[in-house]
Amino acid sequence: MTLETTKNAPVATALGKVRRLWLACGVLSVITLAVAGVLSAIDPELVNWVVWLRGSVVAAACFVLVAATAAAARGSRTAYVRMRWISLLAPIGIVAIVLAPDTGYPAWMKVEQVLLGVLIVLIAVQLNQGAVRRAFAKERPGSTSSL
Predict the structure, then answer these.
(1) Segment 8-28 mean pLDDT
(2) How far is 67 from 12, CA to CA, in rounded Å?
(3) Which end of the chain is less enclosed by CB atoms within 10 A, N or C?
(4) What's the distance, Cα to Cα, between the start and end of the chain in Å?
(5) Which residues contact 62 (CB under 8 A, 6 or more apart)?
(6) Is the distance from CB of 125 to CB of 104 less than 8 angstroms?
(7) What is the pLDDT of residues 75-109, one digit of tens each?
(8) What does the pLDDT average to over 21-41?
C-alpha cells in the first residue's frame, strides 16, 4: 500500500520533523562514539564494551530510521508502523538503562541516553498526531479506522 503523504501538509511536516529528529539522534550517537574514543585515550575505565556496542548499534539504527522516514513519506505504512513502535518502546528501554543500578553503562553515557530518549519521545509525539495516524490507518473493508 502506498499513500501520497507529500500532498498532506500536516503529515509531510510531521515526517520532516521526524527525519530531522532521527538525524539528530544519529549525530548524537556519532558524537558519543567520538567522546568514547577520546575518553578511551584519557581514562579507559570510563569506556567499556557496552559503550561501543550500544553507541554503534544506536548510530546505525538512527540512520536506518532516517531511510524509514523517507519510505513513510513515500507512503509506506510498514515503515510508519515500525517507527511508531520503536519511538514508543525505545524510551522504556532507555529508562531501564538509566535507572538500573548495574547496567554497565557509565554515568556519562546514561546522560547521553536521556538526551537520546528526549529526542525519541519528540519523534513519538510527531508520529502519533491524529493527522499522521489517519494517513497511515489500516484500510478495512467496509469501515474506517485509525491506528
Answers:
(1) 97
(2) 15
(3) N
(4) 15
(5) 22, 23, 25, 26, 29
(6) no
(7) 999 999 999 999 999 999 999 999 998 888 999 99
(8) 97
